[in-house]
Amino acid sequence: MKTLIVQRLDGTTYDLNKLDIKIIEFSPPSANFTVNSVQVGKYGEKVTGVTVGPRVIPISMDVFASSNLTIISKRNEFFRIFDSMEDFYIIDARIPTIRWKVRADQQPFKFYDNWHMGGDISFNLNCIEGYAESIDTTAHIDDLSKWSSVGGMNLPLNKRLKYEYSVPEFDIYNASNIDIMAEEKPYKIVFHGQASNLTIYNETTDQTFELNTSIRDGDEFVLNGPLPFLNGSMIYDSGNHELIDLAKGWNHIKINGYQGNFTILFDTRFYY
User: Fold this and answer.
1) How far is CA 225 from CA 29, 41, 169, 187, 266, in A?
2) CATH topology for the 139-267 domain
3) Where in the chain is the domain with CATH 2.40.30.200?
4) How far apart are CA 102 and CA 86, in angstroms?
5) Rg over CA atoms, the chain
6) pLDDT at 219 over 80
7) pLDDT at residue 115 above 70?
8) What is the pLDDT of residue 111?
9) Which of 8, 66, 136, 198 is the most exposed place for a label (fewest CB within 10 A)?
């Protein structure tokens, strides 16, 4: 394979190929589905729901160095790169627009005599959230370096997607493999303009968020998952506590309560 990029939470990145770490296997499996059921009568069960657990990703590689001595320092660098005191991201350079948030199991590091090499380094990466995500959000959908219509992102071909509007009725596309549940995968809806009793209605999911306070010109209203904010201050009691989820594919949105010109942005990642 080409290479993997390790991205730490502080933004530090490591191109493993450039560090003479040669990837043998990076094999994300399917999502880890668990079917929940209850006994019904004597002879069977009824499905009550499906949940997704952590995804365990096998990875293996060899590490090369210039001498038997420098392989020791390479080993220390390797352990630092995959340190799992905190989450880090793995990016497959073949699909550089998607990343996995992971932590690593303990890593073996065997030495091969006279090969200046550490080999048979195989362990698991644990993606606790169960899904990979786009490296950026739809606030930057026009940056083509962050999005790919041919790289497994489910983006429609030959159609420009838009996530910021100044009209009261429009469509939002969720390219994820899953429905985006606002409480579980929080994303931002950002409104600028004047409004009295602003309502945001997703006709596709039949969900309506209502705000029972006024938004003045120059204010910024943000619905971040289930939490509403006005100019950075939470105003939870001023909303009806409804969520605006995004179904897979197209979602038809309607805005009411605005006064004059406005803009509204749906700022989310996609999940795979």
Assistant:
1) 28, 40, 21, 5, 11
2) Jelly Rolls (2.60.120)
3) 4-127
4) 9
5) 23
6) yes
7) no
8) 83
9) 66
Instruction: Find where tokens 């968020």 sit.
Output: 209
Supply the pLDDT for residue 246.
98
DSSP states along 82-108: T--SS-EEEEETTSTTEEEEEEE----
Per CATH, the number for 4-127 is 2.40.30.200
Q: pTM for the full model?
A: 0.92
How far from 77 is each of 16, 85, 122, CA to CA, in Å?
11, 15, 17
Tell me if 141 sits within 8 A of 148, measured CB to CB. Answer: no
Structure confidence at residue 1 (pLDDT): 66
